[in-house]
Amino acid sequence: MTTAFLPSPLDPPPRLLMGPGPVNAHPRVLRALSTPLIGQYDPVMTGYMAETSALYRQVFDTANAQTLLVDGTARAGIEAALVSLVAPGERVLVPIFGRFGHLLAEIAARAGAEVHTIEAEWGTVFEPEAIAAEARRVRPRLLAMVHGDTSTTMLQPLDGLGEVCEDLDTLLYADVTASLGGNTFTADAWGIDAATAGLQKCLGGPSGTAPATFSPRAAEVIGARRQIEAGLREDGDEENALRIGSNYFDLAMVFDYWGPRRLNHHTEATSALYAARECAALLVEEGMKEAVERHSLHGAAMAAGVRGLGLDVFGDQDHRMNNVVGVLIPDGVGDAAVRTALLEDYGIEIGTSFGPLRGRIWRIGTMGYNARKEAVLTTLSALEQVLRRAGAAVVAGGGVGAAHEVYQEAAI
């Protein structure tokens, strides 16, 4: 006989999530998650879907009709884009400057693409002309870019690549999971054909939903591979030998689900849509320019505070994302021990990194709802105390003091 197991009600301890994501959700987003459920074809629900699309057009700075949500984490959005845009055997070029470029290359390879890569040292970015030159050499069907890579904290310039891709008849995809909402991104002006994101960083929501946008050119490519499931077909709906290799990530089907026909594909994740809608509404109310400036201010305060403690900041600071700071771990200080003490003694979470940077840097995020003064100052104060107990030579009050100087200059 199986022993009955009845856990206690959920009661997670209070945490200040100051790592590279996820971050604390905005209170309005949490309230949206508790909104009552309605049916997926209820006119009110389809109205919310239309509103969500309209809001994310403003967030992505685009007029793209195909702007919607992929139900799944940010990685689901990436995979949906790549498997739907690239047919087996087509060439994909991926410039890699951190962990997530490797991810794009792996997903493209699993989709059957002929993948070409170039690499830059972690902590740096590519000169756009280097990417353009390789694109002219490879002539890929898709140029797949990471905009902001949280593993290195770097932000890759994208401006100008759209023109190169248009000349080559190459589609341009951007993974903006870590950057959207906290760094300047303008899909139409930069000639971006496809972009996908996630809620759990600068958008200030829970992981599990991937906002995405697709240009008319990208939508045409996806539409050419459109196939309707056998159980949904009507007169005129035919088999397509070029169909997309995944059912769940078939964006042609997702377009039909969000479009006028409302063809069933999946059951929309109602609560997740409520949260995504609220995330976008908050940004649009604040203003996208103002949101980027807020992330820039608090990211600068965090970087100044880290230096004020006597620590070194990782990477090319001219190309750092506004919302994540990489901190070189001082000699003789244990990576995990410091992160554990911050979590257990102060309820604050920061992150380490991946691959060659694991155990070499901490990543401290100032994004979404946590891009605010009190979160920055609390984190710097706690980090100073933990480092002092760990034996590190830190400047007393230097972190909070340096951050205050940034805020005073900004009259905050």
Description of the molecule:
This protein has 412 residues and is an alpha/beta fold. It has 2 domains: 258 residues, 3-Layer(aba) Sandwich (Aspartate Aminotransferase, domain 2), CATH 3.40.640; 122 residues, Aspartate Aminotransferase, domain 1 (Alpha-Beta Complex). It is built from 13 helices and 13 strands. Strands 2-10-9-8-5-3-4 form a 7-stranded mixed β-sheet, with helices on both faces. Strands 1-12 form a two-stranded parallel ribbon. Strand 3, helix 4 and strand 4 form a beta-alpha-beta unit. Helix 1 runs antiparallel to helix 9. It is globular and about 75 Å long. The N and C termini lie far apart (63 Å). The mean pLDDT is 96.
Give a brief rundown of this model:
It is built from 13 helices and 13 strands. With 412 residues, it is an alpha/beta fold. Helix 4 links the parallel strand 3 (91-96) and strand 4.
State the major sheet. 7 strands, mixed
Q: Assign the CATH topology of the largest domain.
A: Aspartate Aminotransferase, domain 2
Q: What proportion of the residues form beta strands (DSSP E)?
A: 5-15%
- Average the pLDDT over all residues and give the rounded result: 96
Q: Tell me, briefly, the overall form.
A: globular
Topology order in helix (H) and strand (E) letters: EHHEHEHEHEEEHEEEHHHHEHEEHH
Radius of gyration: 22 Å
Query: CATH homologous superfamily name of the largest domain?
Result: Type I PLP-dependent aspartate aminotransferase-like (Major domain)
- Counting DSSP H or I runs of 4 or more residues, the number of helices is 13
**Can you count the beta strands?**
13
First-residue to last-residue Cα separation: 63 Å
The proportion of residues forming helix, as a percent range, comes to 25-40%
> What is the top-level CATH class of the largest domain?
Alpha Beta
How do the strands line up in the largest sheet?
Answer: 2-10-9-8-5-3-4
The poorly predicted ranges are: none
CATH architect. name of the largest domain:
3-Layer(aba) Sandwich
Number of domains: 2
Helix and strand content put the structural class at alpha/beta
